[in-house]
Task: inverse folding
């Protein structure tokens, strides 16, 4: 610990003081409940990089949560745009600081609510958004230039971006005022999440189209969120989560470089998304290792000199697959531990799962409790008052090094097999995840790692939340009305333009915006793209 | 049931749901237990599932959904099976299935609905004792 009479460290002078003079901390001096002063940083040797310094092991910002807390961003969406808008307003009233849209599966794959392919799935796991009017209703009363909006959307990410930019135009908000994140990470869909629509090659083109358009036209928007979350949910280990996610990141940076994009602008707008499971220390170390690895990858592989472009900034969600249906209120405790790991690991935003999600979509009370869990950690636990509080602890540093070494070895293996695109294509990534998932299940079944409470007698409680089964009918009517009011010749011309651009190599986003403004639906444009790009198939 | 030899099972994910961790674990466990298992991959329709089940002459169909589409798709598979006269095929399912829907699914013919937390052994032994009672009895005793 720094004594009163010691001179300020190099990090304090060079990094912390200049930053804090421009971005004051939340309080003038921090102290514990019994009055012990709390320094910004402990266990820091003079020569090693501190928070805010490359390779950012201890955090990407010089003052971390002493300056600003993470964004509390609960993933929500169900039923209809109107009902989801009510949930969004409720969450904002409860003190949530950003929005995160869950889309239903038909929207994620590119089917309108009235498409036969959408049958049974409309409004189930998220909200259906097919038209500019749908998005307008979803975001009714929500200012696009001050609330940041995260969208979990991948195959159809270019279409949702086009809808959002078209809506911004309609509302008179400039594109460079739009803040938020598009997941737009197609590679993990093929290996872990399963909403892919088009083959890998045209999908990668669309990913880069989005990144290129946003870095130029909507520079406050994060055009990609490279996601380990679903890889972990599919059964990977923490080490594989880091390795496969960063390997996907390498593939995207390579694609951007091949397009001729400026990797500094791109690097500054890339974001990540990780999972948080129950093993607190391993999870904390995972986040620290991922940060250090990505910084080195950017510098050493891609020669990015700009520090900010090498920062791994990330969102965290607590682990859905760790939730249990038996004695589900125990899940509140699991979520708290997982959220704590993300905070101690330096996350930029956080979603805490609701305790009832092993039963159904979260009910409103459970959703509020999940948000309250973050608020208690943020405002009562004081774990936010010093930076990277576990950094320097021998066990944490050891785990951080071990995860880095093991994940880097996996990335080298992937390089040796010709890169991530080849490894996805030959199924080796899926097989590796499946093997880990199987081993974890065996450990759980054998009693070696059985969750608390699941073996107790007793019924599984009823699900507190149910989506209204009539919504497909309501959605059909609203789409019918939309189609009657639009100018069909403009729609057809726009679809033709989409087809022609898809066949060529120009950036698709401007014509997609035109199409959405002309009144095309997400399903119509997706179908048109599928005729040019083809469709993928999962054969099990 | 008077069949002998390996139990034949079809596993499927009806609808658009991409969560296949559970069904892939079941696939592996059933194969490890010596069963012959066909998995149809993501995004299959009830009509396709029933057609494949009849063509492949399976004794059981296992369906997985974590998206809420069980309400429509599980019931449709059951209806089509009945329409085809294949009512001797055992139906089972798993995923995020609210407790209040479990009774309904059982009333349309689903023998077991497995919630999160089910062991793989339980699924193997349920199928074995239902379809090969003699061999399972000798195994249990």
Result:
């Amino acid at each position: 610990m720094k004594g009163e009479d010691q001179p300020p460290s190099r990090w304090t002078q060079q990094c912390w003081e200049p930053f804090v003079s421009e971005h004051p901390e939340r309080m003038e001096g921090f102290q514990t409940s019994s009055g012990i002063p709390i320094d910004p940083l402990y266990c820091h040797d003079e020569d090693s990089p501190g928070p805010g310094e490359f390779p950012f092991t201890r955090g990407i910002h010089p003052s971390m949560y002493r300056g600003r807390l993470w964004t509390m961003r609960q993933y929500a969406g169900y039923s209809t745009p109107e009902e989801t808008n009510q949930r969004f307003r409720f969450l904002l009233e409860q003190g949530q600081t950003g929005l995160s849209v869950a889309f239903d599966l038909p929207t994620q794959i590119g089917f309108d609510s009235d498409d036969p392919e959408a049958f049974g799935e409309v409004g189930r796991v998220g909200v259906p958004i097919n038209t500019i009017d749908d998005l307008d209703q979803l975001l009714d009363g929500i200012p696009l230039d001050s609330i940041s909006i995260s969208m979990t959307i991948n195959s159809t990410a270019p279409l949702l971006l086009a809808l959002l930019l078209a809506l911004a135009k309609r509302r008179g908000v400039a594109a460079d005022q739009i803040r938020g994140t598009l997941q737009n990470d197609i590679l993990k869909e093929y290996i872990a999440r399963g909403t892919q629509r088009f083959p890998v090659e045209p999908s990668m083109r669309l990913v880069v189209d989005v990144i290129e358009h946003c870095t130029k036209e909507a520079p406050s928007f994060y055009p990609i969120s490279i996601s380990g979350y679903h890889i972990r949910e599919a059964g990977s280990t923490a080490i594989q989560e880091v390795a496969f996610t960063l390997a996907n990141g390498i593939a995207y940076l390579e694609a951007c470089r091949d397009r001729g994009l400026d990797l500094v602008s791109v690097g500054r707008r890339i974001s990540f998304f990780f999972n948080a499971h129950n093993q607190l220390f391993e999870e904390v170390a995972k986040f620290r290792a991922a940060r250090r690895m990505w910084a080195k990858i950017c510098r050493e592989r891609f020669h990015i000199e700009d520090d900010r472009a090498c920062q791994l900034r990330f969102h965290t969600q607590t682990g859905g697959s760790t939730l249990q249906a038996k004695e589900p209120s125990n899940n509140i405790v699991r979520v708290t531990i997982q959220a704590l790991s993300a905070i101690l690991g330096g996350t930029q935003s956080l979603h805490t799962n609701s305790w009832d999600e092993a039963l159904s979509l979260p009910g409103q009370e459970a959703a509020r409790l999940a948000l309250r869990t973050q608020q208690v950690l943020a405002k009562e636990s004081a774990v936010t008052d010093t930076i990277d509080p576990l950094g320097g602890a021998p066990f944490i540093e050891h785990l951080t090094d071990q995860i880095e070494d093991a994940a880097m070895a996996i990335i080298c293996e992937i390089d040796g097999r010709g890169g991530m695109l080849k490894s996805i294509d030959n199924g080796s990534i899926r097989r590796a995840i499946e093997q880990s998932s199987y081993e974890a299940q065996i450990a759980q079944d054998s009693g070696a790692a059985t969750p608390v409470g699941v073996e107790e007698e007793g019924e599984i409680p009823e699900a507190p939340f149910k989506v209204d089964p009539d919504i497909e009918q309501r959605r059909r009517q609203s789409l019918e009305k939309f189609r009657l009011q639009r100018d069909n010749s403009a729609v057809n011309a726009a679809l033709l333009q989409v087809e022609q651009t898809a066949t060529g190599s120009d950036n698709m986003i401007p014509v997609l915006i035109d199409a959405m403004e002309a009144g095309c639906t997400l399903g119509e444009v997706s179908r048109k793209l599928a005729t040019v790009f083809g469709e993928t198939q999962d054969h099990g | 049931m008077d069949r002998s030899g390996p139990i034949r099972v079809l596993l499927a994910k009806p609808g658009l749901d991409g969560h296949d961790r559970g069904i892939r674990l079941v696939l592996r466990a059933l194969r490890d237990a010596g069963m012959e298992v066909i998995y149809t991959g993501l995004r299959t329709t009830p009509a396709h599932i029933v057609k494949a089940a009849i063509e492949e002459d399976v004794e059981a169909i296992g369906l997985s959904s974590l998206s809420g589409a069980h309400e429509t798709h599980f019931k449709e598979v059951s209806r089509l099976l009945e329409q085809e006269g294949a009512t001797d095929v055992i139906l089972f399912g798993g995923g995020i299935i609210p407790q209040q829907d479990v009774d309904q699914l059982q009333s349309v013919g689903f023998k077991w609905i497995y919630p999160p937390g089910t062991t793989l052994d339980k699924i193997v032994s349920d199928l074995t004792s239902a379809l090969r009672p003699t061999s399972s009895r000798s195994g249990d005793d």
Summary: Chain A has a mean pLDDT of 95. The two ends of chain A are 56 Å apart (CA to CA). Residues 66-445 of chain A form a domain with the TIM Barrel fold (CATH 3.20.20.240).
